[in-house]
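Hi Q.,

Before the meeting this afternoon, I wanted you to have the AR6 prediction in hand. No need to reply - just skim if you have a minute. The sequence and ligand are here:
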Amino acid sequence: MSIQVITADITQLGVDAIVNAANTTLLGGGGVDGAIHRTAGPELLDACRSLPQVEPGVRCPTGEARITPGFRLPARYVIHTVGPVWRGGDRGEPALLASCYRQSMALAFAHGVKSIAFPAISCGIYGYPPELAAPLALQSLGEVLLDRSVQVQVCCFSDAMAEVWRTALNGGR
Ligand code: AR6
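Predicted structure with the ligand bound:
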């Protein structure tokens, strides 16, 4: 198992799959979602729109994941997952965030992905405190990565965010 923390624009990474921190509509938004759709081109929106709705307007419930091609991105696939909105931590947020990482990795394994980059899911617009998200995410990834040879990068958008994740990777030290 290999987990690395980097500071980069996830849309520029030449990995097999990048993960999108999307919303339940899967029809785009701000933050990393907006950047991924802009770089992938309009085909990505078409591909998302063609995914089935599980209830009106919802293509991916919170905590779940869906996969599409990457179109004009260097990455072959985009794995779209929907993190929880932070509401104080006692509304199931940790379990939902852990589920995002697990379901994204399950899709990656099913598609033969050998390298994957995650953004800091929920740590932007959705307000999840990075100091709480990072150890939880790394633990979830560690559990599914046992005995698997997949390269995982956590792609932070700032050095300050990367520092939080590196501290968590080093066991909080
Ligand atoms: N590369 C890597 N990380 C990025 C990039 C990028 N190009 N751009 C932003 N980040 P956010 P969320 C970081 O808000 O909190 C959207 O509107 C950002 O600095 O993108 O899960 C969706 O449609 C932050 O650290 O995702 C949803 O409505 C992290 O990515 C909502 O936002 C996640 O921030 C999801 O909110």
